[in-house]
C-alpha cells in the first residue's frame, strides 16, 4: 500500500509518498519485523529473541514512536532521541524475566528549534539500514552496528567476505540490550526530491545493492511512463524479490519519496555541490566543507 | 510411561563440576574456584541465562569452559534440549531421527543450540572417566561425563561402554565417596543424595501421542540458524589473543572455520528465530549496568550557562554543541552528542558546515570546519584574528565570531 501525506512548512510544503511492506519470508514462522510509516517518522524494527518476544519488542518500538511523535507535522531531533530512549526502556520492561531486543532504523522529518530549517534525521541502532536514492545511485546512509562492520572497519575482512561471514548475524547494539541506548544519527537538509529506503537485514542479505537499485530505477521508469502511479508499490516489489531470492529471514522495506516545495532551510536550490563564494581575501585552502564523512 | 534419569561418571575433585537441578544441568570447568562452584546451583536454579550471567561475572576473558543444558519433555516423551556450550565440553544427542553432536571448539564466545526429539544425551569433558555411571537426582559432583537417558535404558546416550550395570548401585554411599568437597549453598546441602530419579514426563495418553507423532522427527534438527544475536563490541570482537586461546588453533582462519562449522549445522526443520539473545542480552545488561554507573556520576555539572547571540537578535543555548553553516548537516554522530544546527541561509560566503561551538568544562571552543573563507574571532578590545582551521580555539564571553557573511555571533553568558 502507498500512502500520501503533505505537510506545510513555514516557507513551503513537503509532499511524501510512502510505501511499506513486510513479509515473514520462506523459512521463519514468525514475523518479528515491524514498521511505522506515519508522517513525520518512518522506521523499521527487526525484533530478536525468539518466540513472540522479538515480535513484541519491534511492536513496542513502533507503538512508542506512534505515541510520542505527533503525526502530521515535523518533529524535532530531541523528540526523536527521546522516543528512542523511551522505546529502549519500554522494550526492557516488556518482560524483565525474559530478554528481547530489536534493531531500529529510520528517518524523521525534523525542524530546528526556531522552526525555520528542516532536516531528514536518519537514526540507527543495529543492522537494519537506511539508504538514499537520488534517481540513479543508491547510497547506504546508516552504518551497521554489527560484528562484520567492525571487522570491515578494522580492515580484517573485505566487502565480499562480509557477505558470507559466519558471524554476520551478530549485532553490537540493539534497542532493549542495555540500560542506555547508543544511537547514531545523521541530519540531512530537506530539499528538492529525496528518496529513502528503510529496510531490515532480510532485504539486504538477499538482495545486493545493485539489485535494489535496479528495482528502484525500474519503478521510477514505470511511474514516468504510466499516467498513474505504478500498480505495485516499490516496497512491495523489493520485498517480493527478496522473498523469491530465498527469504531466509523476515523481510521489510519502507520507501519514502519526499518532495520539498518552496524554500526550506538552505534556500539555494542548486546545492548539490559546494557553492560557497570565495572571497579571495583569506588563505585559499582545499575546499572541504564536509569534514566528517560517513564511514565507507 | 516415559521418564528420564541423570547419571554421572565421577572424576577427581578440582576440575569439572556438574550441578544438576530439576531439568537442568551445568558442567563447568570451575577448577579450584570454590566461590563459582558454590554459586552454580543457585544460578542454575534461575535458568540458563542466570547461570550464564554468573559465569560471565568476571568478563568473557576469564569465562571457563562449560556446558549448560536444559531439557523439557515434548508430548511424545522425547526431550527438547536447549544448550549453551563453550570450550572443551562436548554434547552428544541421540534421537529417533539420528544422532547429533554439539561442539564449540573455535567459537570465541559460546555456542547456543536447541534440538527436539532427543531420547538421550551425554556431556563429555576431557578428564579421566570412572567406568561406573551413578544416578543423580539433584546436586553437585566432580564429573568426567554426565548422561540423561530414559529410565531403564542403557546408562549412557551413545556409544558408551557398558556402565549400565551400575544403574542401581547409586546410593548415598557411592555419592559420598566421590561426593562434593565444594562449598554449597544451603538449598543444595543434600547434594548428591542420589538416586532420586527424576520423572520428567509421564505421558500415557496415546491419542495425544498419535496426534503429535512425527513432530519430534520433523524438528529433530531444529535449532538456531542465522538468528540475529547481540553482543557488545567488546564481547563480539574477534581478537588475536582470543584466537590464540581458542582450542581450534591460533589462526583467525581456524577460528572462523570453527565458527562456520558451528553454524553450518543442518538447518532443516522449522525455525522461528529462537535466539541466543536471551543469554547474550542478559550478559550485556549485567556488564552495561556496571560500566554505565561511574560514567554517569563522573559528568561534571557546568557552572556556566553559555549561549550564542546572533547579530539578527536570535539566541541559541550552548547546552549542546552548535554547528553553524549555510546548510549544515550531520553525519553519524552519537544521539547523545547531536549538535544543534544553526543555518545562516542565504549567505553565500558561508560554507555549508562552517564552524562548530562546543563547551568543554567551563570553556567555549570554536572550531573552523575547514571552511572556504575562514572564521574570524574578535576578542573584546582586540583586533580580529583568523582561527586555525580544524583546531578547537577557546573563546571568552564577549568574543564576536565572524563567518564572512552578514551575520556575526557573540558568545554570551547568563
From TrEMBL, chain A:
Residues 276-296 have a biased composition (Basic and acidic residues). InterPro entries: PP2C (IPR015655), PPM-type-like_dom_sf (IPR036457), PPM-type_phosphatase-like_dom (IPR001932). Residues 17-258 form the PPM-type phosphatase domain. GO terms for molecular function: protein serine/threonine phosphatase activity. SMART domains: PP2C_SIG (SM00331), PP2Cc (SM00332). Residues 263-296 are annotated as: Disordered. SUPFAM superfamilies: PP2C-like (SSF81606). It holds the Pfam family PP2C_2. This is Protein phosphatase 2C domain-containing protein.
TrEMBL record, chain B:
The keyword Phosphoprotein applies. It comes from the Bacteria. Residues 322-378 form the FHA domain. It comes from Ruicaihuangia caeni. Keywords: Phosphoprotein. InterPro entries: FHA_dom, SMAD_FHA_dom_sf. It holds the Pfam family FHA. This is FHA domain-containing protein. The keyword Phosphoprotein applies. SUPFAM superfamilies: SMAD/FHA domain. PROSITE patterns: FHA_DOMAIN.
